[in-house]
Amino acid sequence: MAPDGYTGKVLRVDLSSEKISTEPLNKEWARQFIGGKGLGARYLFEELKPGIDPMSPENVLSIWTGPLVGTLVPLTSRYVVVTKSPLTGTFLDSYAGGFFGPEMKYAGFDGVIIKGKASKPVYLWLNDGKVEIRDARNVWGKDTYRTEEVIRKETGEKMARVASIGVAGENLSLISSVTNDLTRNAGRGGTGAAFGSKNLKAVAARGTLGVEVNDMDSLLPMVKEMIKTDVVGNPDHAGMITDGTPVLVEMSNDAGILPTRNWHDGVFDGHEGINSESIKTRVLVRKRACFDCALACGSWSKVKAGAFSGAATEGPEYETLGLCGSNCGIKNVEAVIRFVEDCDRHGLDSISAGNAVALAMDLYEKGILSKGDVNGLDLRFGNEEAYAKMPGIIAERKGIGDLLAEGALRAGRKIGHGADGMVMHVKGLEYPAYDPRGTIGMALAYATSDRGACHLRAWPVATDAYGSADPWSTEGKAATCVEDQTRTSVKWSFIFCDFYGVNFPNMAKYYSAATGYPSSEEELRKTGRRIWNLTRAFNFREGFARKDDTLPERMMNEPLRSGKTAGKAVPKESFEKMLSEYYALWGWDEQGRPTKAALTDAGLGDIASKLPGLG
Questions:
Q1: Topology of domain 9-206, per CATH?
Q2: How far apart, in whole angstroms, are the C-alpha atoms of residue 24 and residue 1?
Q3: C-beta of residue 256 within 8 angstroms of C-beta of residue 561
Q4: Are strands 122-127 and 200-206 parallel, antiparallel or unpaired?
Q5: Looking at the domain covering 240-430, what would its CATH class be?
Q6: Which of 437, 439, 500, 531 has the lowest tally of Cβ within 10 angstroms?
Q7: 11-38 residue pLDDT tens
């Protein structure tokens, strides 16, 4: 068989029976869905019965790479965890960069499919095609930093890469993450709880098997040109290279969309204490890069003095600065670094954790929660001492942490007194750091994302708030979301980095050279539509429809207070009109249900036949 960028092997592990097997990659599905998100979604739809509890042994958990991962093509070092989300009940794909993805592929596998539940804590050890289920009781209860250290020592492989859960995942927190390379997290949707529910502490990989592409003579010049023109020489990437995503703090504050004090405002009076300049002048140690990356947008930061001296982490990146910084009223990047390091060690999604803590602060200031309710802390917005204790409290489910570990929406519902109306979410997944009252395109992007509120499916904020488009006009916003969702469905299937705005023509030429499968912009657009329709079909099968593609009432009824967006909210009538236009562009019915015609046209006729009730 000619080399095509794939290893050609899928690993299956049943933790209940301790059965391990290897099977050939379904090459027909690989042609139709590429890898990463698409391939993971296809396997999940086929193998998961409808209505399964995501925390049950019957849930299917898988890890996938793509055909470009581990090749010379830069910005393709990521892997994806695919499962039914413990937090939302939707389709879930959660990504992380670093080095684990390429290492898993070098160990011999395009994907790993995990079912069942181990009788005791275990981890998987993948090493040049060999697989073991190993006892993890010696690392159960340990943080992710220590877990990586112990597993490397135990395997005797200093270069082993480890994707593990911390105490949060062990305690089945629905906002827990899977962490690799200390600071890289497949964070959204409760991936850590999916691991923990199976008594799976980690997956570790070391490999020397390499990856073969079809046409290196063609691919190598493309890679050189990509680095020269699209990465290093691209003016759109200049800020990423020098500052990374923290440049967005100032941009969002100026645009009036920076989440502030639990989403009450879009402008933060302390933004200068958490922006890129504060990182560069106060805490930056050195720049960092993922595997085979010329962008190097990461920053290793360390607190040099004060109450949080010694705290260190990568970044913090923009989403964290917004949700764990301004949204909690925190004005000092040093406090954010302590918070984020603890999230990484405990295995918590910092986006969800920041939202959950901001909710608790809001409720405390309003008198709905008393000091006794919040573990004796003075949990005011901006109180760094109390704030810094919260990741550990949530991970260990102590007091208020037991509620917040369930995610902000569930916590709000249990607390009552209207607390659930103070949670900014879609389908139970907490908002990323862009207030849609200042970018109506993001309102639609959040509402229609297949995994709940997400900025990685469509990002109209780039033109709405940061660009020249009218951020409150609905004109063309549905088409923008459809275009972005189509493109990113392909992008996350290869799996390219977040920060590479790769287009269809480039993806087609890399794909053709690496795999030997002829491709084109038109073909990849069809693939993107196929993948997005597939995840929509999965969510429809699980009971999701138009009623779930919505926004919190605050976004529609409570205008922002100050700055450029003062007095702005999302008009309900405009939003609903935009949503109907969006459904029509996809060929779905007015309730957002995929139709037989839309699925068949996308090449999913077999999927349509398995879904009763389609129009």
A1: Aldehyde Ferredoxin Oxidoreductase;  A, domain 1 (3.60.9)
A2: 12
A3: no
A4: parallel
A5: mainly alpha
A6: 500
A7: 999 999 999 999 999 999 999 999 999 9
Write out pLDDT tens, residues 528-581.
Answer: 999 999 999 999 999 999 999 999 999 999 999 999 999 999 999 999 999 999
Quote the crossing angle between the two packed helices 477-494 and 36-47, to the nearest 10°: 90
Distance linking the first and last C-alpha atoms of the chain: 42
Q: Which two tokens stand for residue 586?
A: 């996809």
What is the mean pLDDT, run by run of 10 residues, along the chain of 615 residues?
89 98 98 98 97 98 97 93 98 97 98 98 98 98 98 98 98 98 97 98 97 94 88 71 86 98 98 96 91 81 97 95 98 98 98 98 98 98 98 98 98 97 98 98 98 97 94 97 98 92 93 95 98 98 97 96 96 98 98 97 96 86
Q: What is the pTM of this model?
A: 0.97
- In angstroms, how far is CA 219 from the centroid of its own chain? 29
* Total number of residues shown for the chain: 615
CA–CA distance, 360 with 454 (Å, rounded to integer): 22
Q: Where are the domains of the chain?
A: 9-206, 240-430, 436-608
Give the 3-state secondary structure of residue 80.
strand
The position carrying tokens 């901001």 is 358
Rounded Cα gap, residues 512 and 497, in angstroms: 19
For the record, the structure tokens of 579 come out as 């949503």
**Residue 93: is it exposed, middle or buried by C-beta count within 10 angstroms (0-12/13-18/19+)?**
buried
Query: In the predicted model, what is the mean pLDDT of the chain?
Result: 96
The CA angle 439-443-446, to the nearest 5 degrees, is 125
**88, 55 in Cβ contact below 8 A?**
no
For the chain, the helix, strand and coil percentages under 3-state DSSP, each to the nearest 5: 45, 15, 45
| Spatial separation of the C-alpha atoms in residues 365 and 359, rounded to whole Å | 10
Rounded-to-integer distance, Cα 275 and Cα 267, Å:
13
Assess contact for 9 and 24: CB atoms under 8 A: yes
Q: State how far the Cα of 71 lies from the Cα of 4, in Å rounded to an integer.
A: 11
The per-residue pLDDT for range 303-340, each reduced to its tens digit, is: 999 999 999 999 899 999 999 999 999 999 999 999 99
* Cα separation, 184 vs 313, whole angstroms: 10
Q: Are residues 104 and 79 in contact, defined by beta-carbon separation less than 8 angstroms?
A: yes
Looking at the domain 436-608, which fold is it?
Answer: 1.10.599
Six-digit token pair at 520? 């084109």
3-state SS assignment for residue 158: coil
Q: Is 428 left (phi over 0), alpha (psi -120 to 50) or beta?
A: left
Tell me how far apart the alpha carbons of residues 489 and 480 are, in angstroms, rounded to a whole number: 14
| 240-430 and 436-608: identical CATH topology | no
91: phi then psi, degrees, rounded to nearest 5:
-60, 140
pLDDT at 278 (0 to 100): 96
- Nearest residue to 243 via CA among 301, 282, 183, 287: 287
Q: Which 8-state DSSP code applies to residue 64?
A: E
**CA atoms of 301 and 202, how far apart (whole Å):** 26
Q: Are 247 and 255 in contact (CB under 8 A)?
A: no
Residue 438 has φ and ψ, to the nearest 5°, of -115, 10
